[in-house]
Design brief:
The chain has about 325 residues and is α/β, with parallel strands linked by helices. It has helices at about 20-25, 40-45, 50, 70-85, 95-100, 110-125, 145-155, 185-195, 210-220, 230-235, 240-245, 255-275, 280, 295-305, 315-334, and strands spanning about 5-10, 30-35, 40, 60-65, 85-90, 130-140, 160-170, 200-205, 225-230. The protein has two domains: about 5-245, Alpha-Beta Barrel (TIM Barrel), CATH 3.20.20; about 255-334, Up-down Bundle (Four Helix Bundle (Hemerythrin (Met), subunit A)), CATH 1.20.120. Helices cover about 45% and strands about 15% of the residues. α6 (about 110-125) runs parallel beside α7 (about 145-155) and α12 (about 255-275) packs antiparallel against α15. The protein is globular and about 60 Å long. Bound molecules: flavin mononucleotide.
Length: about 325
């Protein structure tokens, strides 16, 4: 599947599961969506089908893998390719203790040879592209040479796309959450990498809060794309301008109401297939009406009731309620 990676929603553990991606896809037809990181071991020894299952509507969708064993990663990547994922991404940016104990994630920035070998073996076994997501460095790694050496070595083997979270990861003492906030953002470092290696596709990530800001960054620094994580999750309707403003596509933008109704239908279908609860889906939607009148009540209705619901009706109810509040407010303002 050929697609443009100018804009993507970041991989986020526990957040960007299949329900979340289905929801995001309703808001933007062209955004590239990522899975949560899945370890190669989990795919080889764990409930593979469940971990990999997705709706074809989510495509283009990138499977993000974690691990450091070339053969295992290659096996896991092949499973992903065979089931229909669009691309494989290696997580070389995660700073969590669990990941460090397994010697993968961000600490692999110090082992470009091993990362190259992982990419090489995956590429031998798979036809879909393999990309890297990393930081600008870790700990006291040299600010210039560290990232340059890593990218130079890994790109030699054929990886042409690097997503760079524009912060260092500090592997001692900071939690993953702190590691997304404390180390300062350094966009110029990503820009200088692109300047030095214009042959590579460089996607910038970290702290981007709007589509306009992302577009401006790629324009100013001649970058190939941008990736948004937290803001896209917490305020998902920002994705509604992506098709027009990033991909220059003239596609009708669905309203929040239309998206919520589609999700209610999705829930009805999903509940027929799986024994689960509506909250597993609606938890990703709580920001849909972010900062509009009635948003607090919308979140409350869903948070308090979705767990006990058997179909999408609770979402229809909450949505009718907030649309009514917005309508009345608009009448008063008129
Ligand atoms: C809850 C959460 C989970 C995350 N899980 C992953 C992950 O599985 N793989 C990964 O590469 N990055 C992960 N990240 C990092 C994001 O992909 C992204 O690089 C980071 O949040 C910076 O982008 P942002 O400022 O736009 O959120 C996670 C971030 C959050 C908030």
């Amino acid at each position: 599947m050929v697609f443009d990676d100018k804009f993507s929603v970041a991989p986020m553990m526990d957040w960007t599961d299949s329900h979340c991606r289905y929801f995001h896809r309703l808001i933007s037809s062209h955004a590239v969506l990522y899975t949560e990181m899945i370890t190669a071991d989990a795919l080889i020894y764990g409930p593979r089908e469940k971990l990999l299952s997705f709706n074809k509507e989510e495509l283009p969708c990138v499977l993000q893998l974690g691990g450091n064993n070339p053969n295992k990663l290659s096996k896991a990547a092949k499973y992903g390719q065979d089931i229909g994922y669009s691309e494989i991404n290696l997580n070389i940016g995660c700073p969590s203790n669990r990941v460090q104990n397994g010697s993968f994630g961000a600490c692999l920035m110090e082992s470009p040879k091993l990362v190259s070998e992982c990419v090489r073996v995956i590429q031998e076994n798979c036809q879909i592209p393999v990309t890297i997501k990393c930081r600008i460095g870790i700990d006291d790694m040299d600010d210039i040479k560290g990232l340059d050496n890593f990218v130079d070595q890994v790109s030699e083997i054929g990886t042409k796309l690097f997503i760079i979270h524009a912060r260092k990861a500090l592997l001692n003492g900071l939690s993953p959450k702190q590691n997304r906030e404390v180390p300062p953002l350094n966009y110029p470092r990503v820009a200088s990498l692109k300047k030095r290696r214009p042959d590579l596709k460089i996607i910038i990530n970290g702290g981007i809060e709007s589509i306009e800001q992302g577009n401006q960054l790629i324009l100013n620094h001649n970058l190939d794309g941008f990736m948004i994580g937290r803001e896209a999750y917490k305020n998902p309707y920002i994705l509604s301008t992506v098709d027009r403003d990033v991909f220059s596509k003239n596609i009708k933008q669905s309203s929040r109401y239309e998206i919520a109704m589609e999700m209610a239908n999705y829930i009805d279908n999903y509940m027929k297939k799986e024994v689960s609860n509506v909250h597993a889906v609606t938890r990703h939607m709580l920001g849909l009406y972010n900062s509009l009148p009635g948003a607090k009540e919308w979140r409350r209705i869903l948070s308090e009731n979705a767990r006990f619901s058997k179909n999408g009706d609770i979402l229809r109810l909450a949505t009718d309620n907030i649309e009514d509040v917005i309508h009345r407010q608009n009448l008063n303002l008129a």
